[in-house]
Amino acid sequence: MKTKPITLNWFFKWGIFGGKIVEWILLYVLKAMNNTTYKINHEAIQIHGNGLFSKEEVTVSISKGLKDSGIIFVLNNEKIEANVCNVSNANRNTVLTGSKETVCLVEHFLAACSLLGIDDIEVKTNKNELVFGDGSALHWYEAFRKSDLMSPPSQNKYNLKEPLFIKSGNKEITAIPSTEFKVSYYMDWDHPALGKLWASWEQGEGEVAQLRLLRARTFGTKEENDFFGMSEKLLTLTENGFNKELYEPLEPVYHKILDIIGDLRLCGINPLEINMHVMGFKSGHSLNVEMAKELAKVVK
Ligand SMILES: [Zn+2]
Description:
Layout: H1 8-13, H2 19-31, E1 37-40, E2 44-50, E3 57-64, E4 71-75, E5 78-81, E6 87-89, E7 95-97, E8 102-103, H3 107-116, E9 121-125, H4 138-145, E10 158-159, E11 164-168, E12 171-177, E13 182-189, E14 195-202, H5 207-214, E15 219-221, H6 222-227, E16 235-237, H7 251-264, E17 274-281, H8 285-299
Parallel strand pairs: 4-9, 10-17, 13-17, 15-16
Antiparallel strand pairs: 1-2, 2-3, 3-9, 4-5, 6-7, 7-8, 11-12, 12-17, 13-14
Helix pairs in contact: 3-4, 3-7, 7-8
Bound molecules: zinc ion.
């Protein structure tokens, strides 16, 4: 009798075995990741890896900031706060601009900070972007988990009192009052590998569920990923499927949920501190940022 190979999904299915299995999953996944290197001395992290836009190596140094300073990106000595008032573009990724400098692709980093309870940090980069990794947030998790920057979830809670609703064409994003933070997403792509998909994630589901979001990779069409010379390295749609095996069928939807959590951090606080159920219907960065603007008014 042949032994069935143990897959990542098997680990997730039986994730109740706890931390050790999570560790194995990480080792397995990180082996397949890009050449990302880390220097970590508990209070500071330096991470070095591939950029998407510059097509060059990017070095990001993260250190503790002042209390209540929030998340501050630093490029060429200019400080740019992770806040909706600094968003200059949210078409395909989320871009922050200060008086001179611009930092692209902040959403996966901000999602990792929200999920792991990281705040009040300075994030220095030497390029107009952050380390891209495999298009997920797993490399940020790997860096943070070895540092002392991670903290338990904040006990501060805001209650959303009224529903918020934003619509543009056939895309929508809604936030309704809830007893805890939750995100759901509905995807509808005219492609045999995707189609109509729905997934939800809620705070308190544990570390395995958290990793399901952190490891979920971005995906693009071949034309999009060819533009960056990355169609082989990244998750790319082919005629009937993807160029690489998905970790699980809902991975693309979990990535959309990761994007929402990252973009909503721009409201000024960790969105996980707001008791609300956010529901995205085919929405992307631009609607996420509009929702962050509305939330910024609520938590002010
Ligand atoms: Zn993304």
